[in-house]
Request: fold
Amino acid sequence: MKIYNNPPPSEWASLTKRPLTNHDDLVDSVNTIIKDVKLNGDDALIKYAKKYDDAELDSLAVSTNVIEAAADKVSRELKQAIQLAYNNITKFHSTQLVDEEIIETMPGVKCWRKSVAIQKVGLYIPGGSAPLFSTVLMLGIPALIAGCSEIVLCTPPNKKGLIDSSILYAANLVGIKKIYKVGGAQAIAAMTFGTTTIPAVYKIFGPGNQYVTKAKEILQLQGVAIDMPAGPSELLVVADTSCNPKFVAADLLSQAEHGVDSQVILLSDSAEVINSCLSEIDIQIQYLPRQSIALEALRQSKSIVFDTINDAFNFSNIYAPEHLIIASANASIYVDKIINAGSVFLGNYSCESAGDYASGTNHTLPTNGNAKSYSGVSVDSFVKKITFQEITDKGIMNIGRAIEVMAEAEGLMGHKNAVTIRLNEK
Amino acid sequence: MKIYNNPPPSEWASLTKRPLTNHDDLVDSVNTIIKDVKLNGDDALIKYAKKYDDAELDSLAVSTNVIEAAADKVSRELKQAIQLAYNNITKFHSTQLVDEEIIETMPGVKCWRKSVAIQKVGLYIPGGSAPLFSTVLMLGIPALIAGCSEIVLCTPPNKKGLIDSSILYAANLVGIKKIYKVGGAQAIAAMTFGTTTIPAVYKIFGPGNQYVTKAKEILQLQGVAIDMPAGPSELLVVADTSCNPKFVAADLLSQAEHGVDSQVILLSDSAEVINSCLSEIDIQIQYLPRQSIALEALRQSKSIVFDTINDAFNFSNIYAPEHLIIASANASIYVDKIINAGSVFLGNYSCESAGDYASGTNHTLPTNGNAKSYSGVSVDSFVKKITFQEITDKGIMNIGRAIEVMAEAEGLMGHKNAVTIRLNEK
Reply:
């Protein structure tokens, strides 16, 4: 980890920049896949399963029997852990669905919003080295709470053409029955256009590799909504002298092991704190199975000593991290300094992995500086808020003249007339 | 208006399709403008003002004096109307900013969300034939309520290099001081990258022509967020026998006068109702100044008679209209049938123009079927909801084992270790 000592604000912009992750070179191959899926549907999906997942598939759908049998292959301890996470995530997300009050803006003019579930949603769960059943919970539970009537899940099969049991178990727990063995850009295309087997959806959620990300980017211009732009995962820790350097090191490493492109930043107002944390990293990293990945990620990471903790928070707000840990015994006094972040972990015992799995908050969060303008996934992401208004014959008398005057000033006499004709009827 | 009689559901998909409004041919010219603004900043903007707005500009910013003097040029009646709209929009939108409760998902594990304003936002207000001061209110008021610290407004100048007084007046009322004479794709590029005069923002809002829309589409892939995808404005009316055909005709015409590409759809379970409404359109259209635009829009519009009112709502949900009027004396009984719509107007006295201007709801709404997955603009659009969690030393004892088990099952031992090291400290 490179250490910077109190860099002047003029250097902050470049220090907060992420490495370029532009995959424009992928556009052609992703577009080819998209066109193929649009044209050839299931046949294309079975072909790509062979090509990219090395899997011979007879059918794309996972049968109900297979979904239900998965429970037998998941250990009792893991089932209990998943249940605890399920309960906490459900408890937190349930409070996000609210009935909004009816506002009478003027006598006879009532306005309100109603949250209505997005009917058809698609969840993409990456395959690869680890089965991300936690993401099934993080996307499936808010979809369930929102009341989405059709939830489709795509995830790539392994070489035997199978889906990991823990993913199937988590999906079944959430009530997802439509599970398909499709990965990559082809999965995003299938959920956008629909195929004989896979239903088209209105909004697609979930992380993925650069092919998946590029496909979501391209297809959101063709009518499907997506959760948010994606980028490599990030953690920024602000540590003061009341932190526990062992804990900080463990948290930084938990982020670094995600991938070689993971972003890890450590800020403090104490050089000693930084040195202690870095020494701890050197010790702890030796025991990590994913040591080489973590080492590579740390090589691009930064530790910065600032004169004041205030400067550290100013820097953090410019960086706008996906995950922000306040490693301090007095974390709550810093809350109001936080302007841009995806999810914040307060105090020495709030580790990022708690939020990744089981505390109750969502782990699908804005990366790459998008925390300046995007929220993480929540029940909000699975509903539209439709506005309603009900104006009575008396209400239009109260509001009508103002509308006529404004419509005329904008040169829209048809708009004006829609009011005039009602006022004249009285 | 073409009349369809009870089309079978197999034809609904094609009947709900919008005419193609793909402006891919614009990509090259918009990209040229974007690159020019990124490279040459203010100079490029002044050049394009000359080229596209026929305006010679000395400076891009509107001075405080000019902004404040605008009030003298707005009639007292229009000021009163704007004030009434301002009050209603503020009253309705103020209720959208809520303090969310802290949820203790398990003893010692607290989670909550905090709404924090997007610091820097950009509002685009189109120029052209009419000054859309109403859109200044619809975007500026929620930005003000959210607490955005920097609100930038771009709008094209007229040939004299001036901005309409009503736009300046509305902006000043909302407290917007940063107003720039820039239109088109160049305005979107300026607010994305920033220039010497114009600040860069994190999210851009507002309607516009195909150049503006294409620029928002392209630039959202380069780090700036946008409100939603844009398309021509739409109105769908479901009218039963208790409607007032004069009112329905006036509402359909108010939509048709927007532009030749406006979408107008009338559904009913009564052929008589449809005939009466169309006869009324023929009468009322004669008196409209924008008659030729409305005629052109109506040529592409559809009236459909269904066997049942239920079919009409099923069709409407597939169409997913931006504006939906329930023209019925008993509109409230239909509310639960509405699944996909931007804003809904209930009953014979709730005309669309009320929502366009002054009832309190927002008029920036999803078009082109996007109401299936997008909400209209609200205070939500101007904030991020940051999640927080605070886990105590006792809390990690309650939740720690579950995290360890799940992290290990996903093969992420660094994630596990961040918990283990805390549990072992106890």
In short: The radius of gyration of chain B is 25 Å. Chain B has a mean pLDDT of 96. Chain B touches chain A through 132 residues (CB under 8 Å). Residues 392-423 of chain B form one domain.
